[in-house]
Amino acid sequence: MITELAVERVEFTCGHCWHAWSADYDVQHYRDDDGADWEYFSHDGIPVASPYSADGAPACPECHRHWVGHLAARRLIPLPSDEPVRPRTGVTGDPALHRPERHFAPPIPVASHQLPAHQHPAAVRHEPLGL
User: Fold this and answer.
1) Are 69 and 51 in contact (CB under 8 A)?
2) Which residue from 9, 10, 42, 104 has the least number of CB within 10 angstroms?
3) pLDDT tens across 6-58, in order?
4) Residue 32 contacts by C-beta under 8 Å, 6 or more apart in sequence?
């Protein structure tokens, strides 16, 4: 059972050349029949390992070394429900023929969002946390 859907913006900073970039990942949280929780990631519609793990760390576009990302922002996607107040549109007839153009629409590319400004980490000023 799907328990949560979200889009997560993941930021990366290469520890070798200091190139900074970001990418959006679709994240699906799933609970299996045994009650175990799982997380599935996809990037531009392609299943990938978690960008927060060494196995899923993408290559730096500049020097091609791999770096684990960190969460920068997230947007939840509402799960379907039978709430009468939630707007919805019925699908009549053959579901495959309903809005057929959706099957051929190109994916929204990851580069369609604002990328972070390139900034060397030494130039970042860190304020102490008030405790």
Assistant:
1) yes
2) 104
3) 999 999 999 999 999 999 999 999 999 999 999 999 998 899 999 999 999 99
4) 38
Q: What would the two tokens of residue 49 be?
A: 């390992």
Angle at 72 between CA 66 and CA 78, to 5 degrees: 115
| CB of 68 closer than 8 Å to CB of 52 | yes
Three-state DSSP class for residue 86: coil
What are the two backbone dihedrals, phi and then psi, of residue 9, each rounded to the nearest 5 degrees?
-90, 120
CA neighbor of 71 nearest in space, from 125, 113, 37, 27 = 27
- Distance CA(68)–CA(54), nearest Å, equals 6
pTM of the model: 0.69
Residue 101 phi/psi, 5-degree rounding, is -65, -20
Closest CA to 21 of 9, 30, 33: 9
For residue 73, the 8-state DSSP code is E
- Hey, what amino acid is at 37? D
Length, in residues, of the chain: 131
Backbone angles phi, psi at 43, to 5 degrees: -130, 115
- Whole-angstrom distance, CA of residue 6 vs CA of residue 107: 16
